[in-house]
Backbone:
């Protein structure tokens, strides 16, 4: 069972979270072209090793998180809020 | 084999006599016995019949590795098949039976299979029943299907009761710093060391007693150890198996709470499934003694040496009178000595020729000898032996028992669960655990240590390792080297029988012989994973704990390779079987999944509602009067709504509060239609698309104030929409000042629909002016009070196509609201209506729901092109006409009538052209209803090209599953009141 250290709630089972997706995607502006959106939505790397991914603490604080996780071992290197303002709060409370 | 109970041996409680039954006959045992020890004490040698050949089988071991003594415990709905007699504690009144035999294990008619062995070799079933080429090419599966049930009956084990499980189970959770698996010397040393260093420790032991293999020692007493562990605050969990290791130091445990009690308290669960979240895991799971493959090595009376020691010293049962021990290592000599001291005549065959061992000469040692063949069928008559250098029968020894020790296999299973491959150790002829980066440390004989002192040292080293890894200490430590016998082990896996058709068993439980392994090799199944699947080696419920390595060594020999080159199969959880009941815990019956009810749930039931599940929600389905059927009822309800007024519970809709200065901008980006100009006090229907341009959900948003909206979503997509909005705000549009809050549980909602709905509502609100057509026009929203000073929100929204309102109150007022509105609706001959009538009304109007918006449909497919703004960009706007989504033969929403209006159809019907009824056709019917308004069945669905293409063509509805076919007419989805005059009334 993967355990994720939520910056707000503490370490929790992954069953409290929902997997989002690739956290490195920069979504284009809404008026961008079909081509740009296609690349943002459909083109994904298949990383072996650590990758940044989003998880939603849906059964907890409901924060969206960026999790740095190894796709090979499930080892998690870091967990931080997606929202920069939440990140600041977490940093200040350390 | 003549087994007997000895007075001076054993740790059983002879003051407490327990009676039990075996194959319907009564026997007696003592408290502290296992079923196996009690059977042996009663001189019962045959306890089962083997899987394929129905050969008589006895008790091979004294633990979880048992591959012979699988029995059925209990009867009727308490029947539990394939229980290992060696781990089943005896209790008063225990009922046990042999299995896979008719009429019983002593005389089994299917024993004939033993003589047909040649036919039942590995792959027999596949080769024979999958079809005989070339006559039956392509028919293999059908033939297999036919024969399968007979084969399954003949080859097998115990059968389940087929009745609902009467027992209860529960799930439990715990946390600790360190979990220690196994209470042998290593595990206990590790636990004590850790507790002394202030770690929070759980010690898990699968046996009923702590001590591990020390329980087989004649002078071992665990009471002092137990006290010490308890005084240190260590949580000791006996009768608990660590069946699997998972990511992040999570351990799965199965605690057998009442399996050893004759009449357990019904309020206590039978078993408890534990999830332990630890910071470090120490595994001292011990090692398992292997047998040796030679001809007839399965005759009842064959046992591992260590098992015999357990039966003698723990249970006071001497397992034979004339015992031959066959070994290749030093571990048997203490047992040989004790058995002879207890009165047995013991001969040790040691395959090694050159070694020194200290003994008191109370038994004979035959150096350089191996077992060759057992004579006997239901019991051992004698043993043919051979010199180990040149294999051939050299002489015969009269004996009634043959004890085997082919070496020891460390229990590396739990580490294997983590994907850590064990490494082969040539010196000790066994697989040893490899190192892992995870916080798991192997100690004791599960890392190949054979001496007790080494085991203790390794336990302390293991805890030091744990403390270092947890950052608590930085202490140097070392583990003792694997091994510890005075003389090296000599690898011995098989003694090859000279005659053909030998029955040298590798895997007792699945009847896999050495010949089967050779056959697999001949036929090309040489990878261990293929070998396993072809011969079923190691696939029985003992998972090859005793026999796997013998199979591997044979394959290595055949391939002219070393064992590590051949590899080992991966052990997967569970280590020992886990009952399905324990896995499901309390999540059975009504508790299978969470139940959601609306605040007026009981009110609905009290007023006659029949309920239906919608997702997790219980919603009113229909409100039958007296003898009404579902159809009678919904037709009456829908007609009443169209004629006067009806009230429907719509609380299950998702409700989201959207607040903040950028709320309008936010809604404008997520909905396909414009929201920038929505006035305060107005609601708007909106459609949300996904990034890829497909419709995600629809609903309404009400502008309550400049910066506050109340959004409703569909019932099914509520959670998804909420997560989606949060994702957008937290990951993409972090500059928007918007807050979203789920308020689904906080508000109770109803729809009041029908031409009299305004009059009903008028009577229920404090200020009757608020619901006039002027003050509350179509899509108008107001926050006001119901009579009795109940704050509410009312929006004039229609799903039914009638003049209609949605009324929301805080959940606490739900019943008051229902009472108030229902009392007034009755005055207008109104009704309560359920989901079925709601469906009928919306299908008549062509309104889409989840049945239509199934995640494959674009906004244009749904006939809602007008809802796609051309004046702004929004989520999905760039993608909604990409590639195939702009093809003009896409399936478009339409209405369907049966050509013959007396006919009916079902949702799921495939729409085809008249002379081309095949495949996926040209469309599908997604929702159907009887239309009270039109007086016949109608449907909503999709057809390629839409109404324009097919409006004058007769199509066919094919429903092969229900064996139905009907002619169809394509019509506009807006089947009644297309201009919406009623809603605007």
Residues:
């Amino acid at each position: 069972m993967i355990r994720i250290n939520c910056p707000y709630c503490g370490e929790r089972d992954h069953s409290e979270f929902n997997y989002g997706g690739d956290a490195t995607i920069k979504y284009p502006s809404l008026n961008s072209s079909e081509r740009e959106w296609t690349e943002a939505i459909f083109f994904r790397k298949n990383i072996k090793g650590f990758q940044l991914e989003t998880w939603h603490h849906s059964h907890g604080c409901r924060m969206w998180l960026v999790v740095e996780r190894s796709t090979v071992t499930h080892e998690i290197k870091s967990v931080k809020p997606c929202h920069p303002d939440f990140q600041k709060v977490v940093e200040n409370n350390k | 084999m003549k087994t007997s109970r000895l007075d001076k041996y054993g740790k059983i409680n002879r003051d407490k006599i327990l009676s039990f039954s075996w194959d319907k006959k009564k026997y007696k045992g003592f408290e502290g016995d296992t079923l196996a020890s009690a059977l042996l004490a009663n001189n019962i040698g045959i306890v089962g019949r083997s899987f394929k050949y129905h050969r008589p089988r006895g008790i091979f071991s004294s633990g979880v590795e048992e591959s012979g003594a699988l029995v059925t415990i209990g009867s009727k709905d308490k029947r539990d098949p394939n229980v290992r007699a060696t781990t089943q504690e005896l209790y008063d009144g225990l009922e046990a039976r042999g299995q896979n035999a008719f009429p019983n294990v002593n005389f089994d008619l299917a024993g004939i299979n033993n003589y047909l062995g040649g036919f039942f070799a590995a792959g027999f079933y596949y080769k024979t029943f999958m079809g005989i080429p070339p006559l039956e090419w392509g028919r293999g599966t059908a033939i297999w299907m036919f024969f399968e049930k007979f084969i399954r009956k003949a080859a097998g084990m115990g059968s389940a009761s087929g009745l609902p499980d009467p027992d209860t189970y529960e799930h439990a959770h715990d946390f600790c710093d360190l979990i220690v698996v196994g209470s042998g010397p290593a595990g206990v040393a590790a636990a004590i060391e850790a507790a002394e260093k202030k770690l929070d420790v759980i010690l898990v032991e699968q046996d009923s007693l702590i001590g591990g293999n020390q329980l087989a020692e004649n002078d071992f007493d665990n009471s002092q150890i137990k006290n010490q562990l308890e005084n240190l605050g260590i949580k000791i969990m006996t009768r608990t198996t660590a069946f699997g290791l998972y990511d992040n130091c999570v351990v799965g445990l199965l605690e057998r709470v009442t399996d050893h009690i004759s009449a357990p308290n019904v309020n206590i669960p039978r078993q408890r499934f534990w999830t332990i979240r630890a910071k470090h895991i120490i595994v001292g799971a011990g090692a398992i003694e292997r047998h040796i493959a030679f001809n007839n090595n399965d005759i009842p009376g064959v046992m591992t040496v260590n098992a015999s020691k357990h039966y003698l010293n723990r249970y006071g049962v001497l397992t034979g009178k004339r015992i031959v021990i066959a070994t290749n290592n030093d571990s048997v000599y203490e047992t040989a000595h004790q058995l002879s001291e207890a009165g047995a005549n013991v001969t040790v065959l040691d395959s090694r020729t050159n070694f020194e061992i200290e003994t008191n000469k109370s038994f004979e040692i035959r150096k350089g000898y191996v077992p060759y063949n057992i004579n006997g069928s239901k019991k051992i008559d004698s043993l043919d032996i051979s010199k180990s250098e040149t294999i051939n029968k050299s002489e015969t020894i009269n004996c009634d028992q043959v004890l085997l020790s082919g070496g020891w296999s460390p229990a590396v299973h739990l580490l294997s669960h983590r994907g850590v491959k064990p490494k082969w150790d040539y010196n000790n002829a066994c697989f040893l655990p490899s190192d892992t980066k995870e916080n798991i440390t192997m100690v004791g004989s599960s890392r190949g240590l054979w001496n007790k002192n080494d085991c203790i040292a390794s336990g302390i080293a293991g805890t030091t390792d744990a403390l270092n890894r947890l950052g608590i200490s930085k202490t140097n430590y070392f583990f003792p080297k694997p091994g510890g016998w005075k003389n090296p082990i000599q690898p011995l896996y098989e003694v090859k029988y000279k005659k053909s058709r030998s029955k040298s068993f590798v895997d007792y439980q699945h009847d896999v012989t050495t010949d089967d392994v050779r056959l697999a090799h001949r036929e090309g199944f040489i990878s261990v994973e293929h070998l396993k699947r072809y011969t079923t080696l190691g696939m029985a419920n003992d998972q090859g704990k005793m026999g796997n390595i013998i199979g591997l060594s044979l394959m290595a020999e055949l391939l002219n390779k070393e064992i590590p080159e051949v590899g080992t199969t991966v052990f997967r959880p569970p280590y020992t079987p886990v009952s399905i009941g324990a896995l499901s815990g309390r999540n059975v019956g009504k508790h299978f999944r969470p139940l959601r009810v609306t605040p007026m749930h009981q009110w609905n039931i009290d007023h006659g509602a029949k309920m239906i599940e919608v997702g997790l929600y219980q919603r009113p389905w229909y409100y039958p009067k007296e003898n009404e059927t579902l159809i009678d009822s919904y037709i009456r309800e829908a007609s009443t709504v169209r004629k006067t007024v009806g009230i429907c519970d719509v609380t299950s809709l998702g409700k989201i509060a959207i607040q903040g200065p950028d709320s309008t901008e936010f809604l404008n980006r997520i909905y396909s239609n414009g929201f920038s100009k929505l006035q305060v006090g107005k609601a708007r229907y909106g459609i949300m698309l996904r990034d890829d341009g497909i419709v995600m959900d629809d609903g309404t948003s009400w502008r309550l104030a400049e910066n506050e909206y109340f959004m409703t979503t569909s019932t099914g997509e509520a959670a998804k929409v909420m997560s989606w909005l949060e994702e957008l705000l937290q990951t993409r549009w972090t500059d928007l000042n918007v807050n979203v809050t789920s308020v689904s549980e906080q508000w109770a909602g109803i729809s009041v629909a029908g031409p009299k709905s305004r009059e009903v509502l008028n009577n229920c609100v404090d200020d009757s002016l608020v619901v006039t057509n002027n003050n509350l026009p179509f899509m108008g929203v107001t926050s006001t009070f119901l009579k009795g000073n109940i704050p509410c929100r009312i929006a004039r929204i229609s799903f039914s196509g009638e003049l209609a309102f949605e009324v929301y109150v805080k959940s606490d007022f739900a019943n008051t609201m229902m009472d108030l509105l229902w009392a007034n609706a009755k005055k207008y001959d109104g009704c309560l209506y359920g989901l079925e009538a709601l469906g009928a009304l919306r299908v008549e109007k062509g309104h889409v729901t989840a049945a239509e918006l199934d995640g494959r449909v674009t906004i244009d497919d749904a006939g809602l092109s007008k809802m796609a703004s051309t004046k702004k960009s929004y989520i999905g706007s760039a993608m909604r006409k990409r590639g195939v989504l702009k093809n003009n033969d896409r399936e478009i929403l339409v209405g369907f009538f049966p050509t013959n209006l007396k006919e009916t159809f079902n949702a799921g019907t495939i729409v085809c052209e008249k002379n081309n009824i095949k495949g996926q056709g040209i469309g599908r019917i997604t929702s159907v209803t009887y239309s009270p308004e039109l007086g016949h069945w109608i449907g909503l669905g999709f057809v390629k090209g839409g109404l324009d293409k097919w409006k004058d063509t007769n199509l066919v509805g094919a429903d092969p599953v229900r064996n139905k076919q009907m002619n169809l007419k394509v019509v506009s989805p807006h089947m009644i009141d297309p201009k919406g005059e009623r809603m605007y009334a």
Summary: The CA atoms of residues 29 and 63 of chain A lie 23 Å apart. The first helix of chain A runs from residue 34 to 42. Chain A has a mean pLDDT of 95. The radius of gyration of chain A is 14 Å.
